[in-house]
């Protein structure tokens, strides 16, 4: 009996994690309408290849091992703060959202840096890049970044959302 209950509980957890990865869930809060509009103008939404990265592609770990599953679950638990702030009304208007954008963006950038832009690398790989088909500047910068061990987020902040202006006296992220 315990195994059946455990199996059902695990199935429900997996279902919930998959459901909360879906774009409609991500943008269901009023506060997410602002970043969603920005994302729809980005190359991650519309591009010549027709490939589309959604919220969970960039904001949720993709690792397949047990540690990756724990990282994914941790990301979901930490994302609950966004729902909390939505309910509190602390980011429910453009003005309130913009006031916190720098701190929120830095929190995401710091996580991406710590993970060596693993979410980016789920789709983008140095060894798959055709440097000769990139424009000269991009090709040169990508080669240098690869040689120097830089990570995607070192250069690509603001790729899917507007990059916030640094406040004169930034809050601690």
Automatic annotation (TrEMBL):
Q: How does it sit in the membrane?
A: Single-pass membrane protein
| Principal location class | membrane
Q: Name one GO molecular function term.
A: heme binding
The residues that hold heme 4 are: 152, 155-156
* Cofactor dependency: heme
Q: Which UniProt keywords apply?
A: Cell membrane, Electron transport, Heme, Iron, Membrane, Metal-binding, Transmembrane, Transmembrane helix, Transport
Q: How is the cofactor bound?
A: Binds 4 heme groups per subunit.
What positions does the entry give for heme 3 binding?
Answer: 120, 123-124
Q: Which residues does heme 1 bind? A: 26, 29, 32, 82
Q: Which GO terms describe its biological process?
A: anaerobic respiration; denitrification pathway
All copies of the NapC/NirT cytochrome c N-terminal domain together span 1-165
Detail which positions bind heme 2.
55, 58-59, 161
Q: Which compartments is it annotated to reside in? A: Cell membrane
Describe the processing and modification events after translation: Binds 4 heme groups per subunit.
Q: Name one GO cellular component term.
A: plasma membrane
- InterPro entries, sorted: Cytochrome_c-type_ET (IPR051174), Multihaem_cyt_sf (IPR036280), NapC/NirT/NrfH (IPR024717), NapC/NirT_cyt_c_N (IPR005126), NapC/NirT_cytc_sf (IPR038266)
Binding locations of a menaquinol = 82
Family of the protein in this entry: Belongs to the NapC/NirT/NrfH family.
Protein's recorded name: Cytochrome c-type protein
Organism of origin is Magnetofaba australis IT-1
């Amino acid at each position: 009996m315990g195994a059946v209950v455990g199996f059902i509980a695990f199935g429900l957890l997996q279902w919930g994690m998959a459901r909360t990865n879906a774009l409609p869930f991500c943008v269901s809060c009023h506060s997410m309408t602002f970043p969603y509009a920005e994302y729809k103008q980005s190359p991650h939404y519309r591009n010549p290849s027709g490939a589309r990265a959604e919220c969970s592609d960039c904001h949720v770990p993709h690792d397949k091992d047990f540690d990756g599953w724990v990282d994914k679950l941790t990301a979901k638990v930490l994302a609950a703060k966004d729902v909390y702030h939505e309910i509190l009304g602390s980011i429910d208007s453009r003005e309130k959202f913009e006031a916190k954008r720098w701190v929120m963006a830095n929190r995401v950038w710091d996580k991406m840096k710590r993970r060596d832009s693993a979410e980016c690398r789920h789709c983008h790989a140095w060894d798959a890049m055709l440097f000769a088909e990139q424009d000269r500047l991009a090709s040169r910068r990508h080669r240098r970044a690869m040689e120097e061990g830089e990570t995607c987020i070192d250069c690509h902040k603001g790729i899917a959302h507007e990059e916030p202006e640094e406040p004169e006296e930034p809050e601690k992220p």
